[in-house]
Specification:
There is one protein chain. The protein has one helix spanning 36-42, and strands at residues 3-9, 13-19, 25-32, 67-68, 77-78, 83-84, 88-96, 102-106, 115-117, 135-136, 144-147, 149-153, 165-169, 175-178, 190-210, 212-220, 228-231, 241-247, 253-257, 262-283, 291-293, 304-307, 315-319, 325-333, 335-342, 351-355. By secondary structure, it is mainly beta. It has three domains: 3-42, no CATH class; 67-188 and 340-355; 190-333, no CATH class. The protein is globular and about 70 Å long.
């Protein structure tokens, strides 16, 4: 059988020699590479490895049992921003499947992750002249794993050691590693700001069918994502707005709710929420999904649900829990602990094995 004996890759091409099984040279030649611009832009191979890479982000790292998140017909599809393979993800009730379960998957969210996106060559190249993609476009089906062993990139700044927990970044689902506590959803990294929270409310005529709220005029105030809906007859306690589906932003239109299978006739409804005003930032950047805490008495489960005038620093942000809080130091968790732990080491940017099957 013919085989490569030697290959030298130069800027302008590849020089190679081929020998047969007895070591006799049978061919020697030169293979030109494309011009430098094509080489850089098109991802032309510029190295020869004696061994293939151990894995790609999202690959299985073992053959232990794996578990997937249940989904009904039409459920678990990529959201508007697409879904990146090899990262953690959250299921959203922006739309629900045939059994009323969340059907939209995003690499951003709040609270505990729904699962991990395993690589099965489902990424599609949609960018002109791109040579690869790990993104599943909007509307394409997603398989989320709620358990199993995977390869993931260490997107933190420090070394990952076996036994460290994987923390999912709330803005993009990337993994960072650090010490954690079994069963916790605490954050590893935080932003620290000085700010206050005031109670806000909006009234409007509204009706609910399934998990869709229809808002009609008159609207007094702004219809805020994350706010809690009360009033009328039959509104389920704890009903919150997940996203706006159509209409005027923050006004007349339709909105997705967190609870499906509701039937509420048109009535005067009230939306309650909190408005966080940040006056200074000591460290970090705020974003939607951050969980808030502080010594000044921030209510439990308070989460930033929408941007006001702030875009990460000073300004206003909407939160899901209505409350009144004087100016104090507030901590915003920018990631959340998962149940996966590292079983290998990895520097920043390197691949790490993770599993939810704890040792011992």
């Amino acid at each position: 059988m013919n085989k490569f004996y030697k290959a030298s890759i130069l800027a302008s091409g590849v020089r190679f020699k081929m020998r047969d099984a007895d070591g006799l040279k049978i061919q020697e030649g030169w293979m030109e590479q494309p011009c430098q611009q094509q080489q850089t832009g098109g991802g032309f191979q510029t190295a020869v490895n004696t061994q293939p890479g151990v894995a790609v982000e999202g690959d299985f790292c073992d053959t232990n049992p794996r578990f997937v998140v249940q989904a009904g017909a039409g459920g678990l599809v990529a959201g508007a921003a697409g879904v990146t393979v090899g990262r953690f993800a959250w299921a959203s009730s922006q739309y629900v499947d045939d059994v009323g379960a969340p059907s939209i998957v995003n690499n951003f969210g709040s609270g505990a992750v729904t699962g991990f996106v395993h690589r099965e060559q489902q990424g599609l190249i949609t960018t002109y002249l791109a040579d690869s993609s790990m993104v599943v476009p909007q509307g394409f089906p997603i398989v989320l794993h709620s358990g199993g062993g995977f390869w993931v990139k260490n997107n933190g700044t420090g070394v990952c050691l076996p036994g460290m927990y994987a923390f999912a970044q709330l803005t993009n689902g990337q993994a960072v590693f650090g010490a954690g506590t079994a069963g916790s959803n605490a954050a590893l990294n935080n932003a620290t700001v000085s700010g206050s929270i005031s109670a806000g409310s909006t009234t409007f005529l509204g009706s609910i069918s399934g998990n869709v709220l229809t808002v009609a005029a008159p609207v007094t105030g702004t219809v805020v994502v994350g706010g809690t809906v009360t009033g009328g007859t039959g509104v389920v306690a704890g009903t919150q707005i997940i996203s706006q589906l159509s209409g005027t932003t923050g006004g007349v239109g339709t909105y997705a709710l967190n609870y499906p299978e509701q039937t509420v006739a048109q009535a005067l409804l009230t939306l309650s929420y909190g408005l966080l005003t940040v006056s200074s930032v000591a460290s970090g950047t705020l974003s939607v999904g951050d969980a808030l805490s502080g010594s000044g008495g921030v209510f439990a489960s308070t989460v930033i649900t929408a941007l006001g005038s702030g875009t990460g620093g000073t300004g206003t942000y909407y939160v899901n829990v209505t409350q009144t809080l004087a100016t104090t130091t507030i901590t915003a968790g920018t990631n959340v602990q998962t149940k996966w732990i590292a079983t290998s080491t990895g520097l920043a940017g390197e691949l790490v094995k993770i599993t939810d099957h704890l040792l011992g």
